[in-house]
Amino acid sequence: MTDSPEIIEVDRDRLWSSLEQLARIGAYDDEDAGTVGVRRLALTDEDLAGRRLVLEWFEDAGLSVRYDRMGNVYARRPGLDDRLAPVRIGSHLDTVITGGRFDGALGVLGGLEVVRALNDAGVTTQRPLEIVIFTDEEGVRFETVTLGSSVAAGRIPLEQARALTDRDGVTVGEELDRHGFTDGDPVPAPEPYAYLECHIEQGPVLAAEELQVGLVTGIFAITWKEVVFTGVAAHAGTTPYELRHNAGLAAALVTVALHEMVRSGRYGDMRATAGRVEQQPNATNVVPGSALMTIDMRCSDAGHMAAAQEALDDAIHRAAEEAKVAVSVRVTARTPPVEFDPEVRTALAKSASNLGLSSREMISGAAHDAGEMAAVGPAGMVFVPGLHDGISHNAREWSTPEACADGVAVLLRAACELAGT
Ligand code: GLV
Ligand code: MN
Ligand code: MN
Ligand code: MN
């Protein structure tokens, strides 16, 4: 029996300073946001530079590092009984194009801080601990969300992930080979005893209610579609309306249909977004000849998602008919709603209450690696509040040293309870 977790303290300033140092890698000036953001798209040189810095910290903390063929990194702290399944703590280091410094990084560096705090206290847990960096959580570059963790969970085969391409035609496989991940262990790695993730909320609720942490009950189901309308580029002044094949019109009709679906209330807590619309030739005096749009739909209920998918497919085909264009549709991501494990949730809730932190339960509208991990073992998450109305996927994403340390303190206690001290 070693020291009780009561006396193990998170070092708030060390955690904050690590977040700051990592944020310098991929830092960019965001003129619209009026501040500096972070851009480390998955498997780019910036993403790998970020990992290299964190790997140095892992090694300094005495962790032994291995990676799998998807480039997911597992940094291990042995347990007193090292044959036991590990407790894993993880998240991602890749960001969206307009990223902040907390989304993902807090989960990984929070895991590192758990290890550093245990090292300082001289405490070894019964079970090993593993800090995980999942490859490409954001799905921005290769258009599939939580890619690395879905391969680790066995939901997407490695070969299918390797074949995905970015907009320049570069494949995931080429990037994994370029960065030397091809020599990694086979995936998936063995199932953990439990998986924990600390993440910035990415929404306004905790700050508005002046709460210190969020206890996450589950994650919305997600469907992503890529829709391509193909019409005929033609003169905007001379082409009679009834002779047009206007691909841009079809995309616009689908955007409006999505809005009406959500506003109808028929699909529960559904949120729908047409985040990317690219029409060609994109000129004032030319009827759009083609339009590519991506659609992101999320809600908490599988039945509502199934009904919304049907309604969306109908809307897409009606739009194509109305605009007299051809259409092709591809599903690029589909994840079921996630419910986190009751025991892991209890461990996190107990940690928060023992620390005297105010909290509430909440569901996540954002995807997380914990969602994929929930399919292979007990998993749970804790959220910390963000400032600026919780804005995220924006350079203005922000939190405070106290808030981050609170979330990681919850992580530390729950990890000690689950791994045994
Ligand atoms: C990624 O963070 C997502 O929720 O799409
Ligand atoms: Mn994230
Ligand atoms: Mn994100
Ligand atoms: Mn994400």
Automatic annotation (TrEMBL):
<dbReference type="GO" id="GO:0016813">
    <property type="term" value="F:hydrolase activity, acting on carbon-nitrogen (but not peptide) bonds, in linear amidines"/>
</dbReference>
<feature type="binding site">
    <location>
        <position position="138"/>
    </location>
    <ligand>
        <name>Zn(2+) 2</name>
    </ligand>
</feature>
<dbReference type="GO" id="GO:0046872">
    <property type="term" value="F:metal ion binding"/>
</dbReference>
<keyword id="KW-0378">Hydrolase</keyword>
<dbReference type="Pfam" id="PF07687">
    <property type="entry name" value="M20_dimer"/>
</dbReference>
<feature type="binding site">
    <location>
        <position position="103"/>
    </location>
    <ligand>
        <name>Zn(2+) 2</name>
    </ligand>
</feature>
<feature type="binding site">
    <location>
        <position position="103"/>
    </location>
    <ligand>
        <name>Zn(2+) 1</name>
    </ligand>
</feature>
<protein>
    <submittedName>
        <fullName>Zn-dependent hydrolase</fullName>
    </submittedName>
</protein>
<feature type="domain" description="Peptidase M20 dimerisation">
    <location>
        <begin position="218"/>
        <end position="322"/>
    </location>
</feature>
<dbReference type="InterPro" id="IPR010158">
    <property type="entry name" value="Amidase_Cbmase"/>
</dbReference>
<dbReference type="InterPro" id="IPR036264">
    <property type="entry name" value="Bact_exopeptidase_dim_dom"/>
</dbReference>
<dbReference type="InterPro" id="IPR011650">
    <property type="entry name" value="Peptidase_M20_dimer"/>
</dbReference>
<dbReference type="Pfam" id="PF01546">
    <property type="entry name" value="Peptidase_M20"/>
</dbReference>
<keyword id="KW-0862">Zinc</keyword>
<feature type="binding site">
    <location>
        <position position="199"/>
    </location>
    <ligand>
        <name>Zn(2+) 1</name>
    </ligand>
</feature>
<feature type="binding site">
    <location>
        <position position="393"/>
    </location>
    <ligand>
        <name>Zn(2+) 2</name>
    </ligand>
</feature>
<keyword id="KW-0479">Metal-binding</keyword>
<dbReference type="InterPro" id="IPR002933">
    <property type="entry name" value="Peptidase_M20"/>
</dbReference>
<feature type="binding site">
    <location>
        <position position="92"/>
    </location>
    <ligand>
        <name>Zn(2+) 1</name>
    </ligand>
</feature>
<comment type="similarity">
    <text>Belongs to the peptidase M20 family.</text>
</comment>
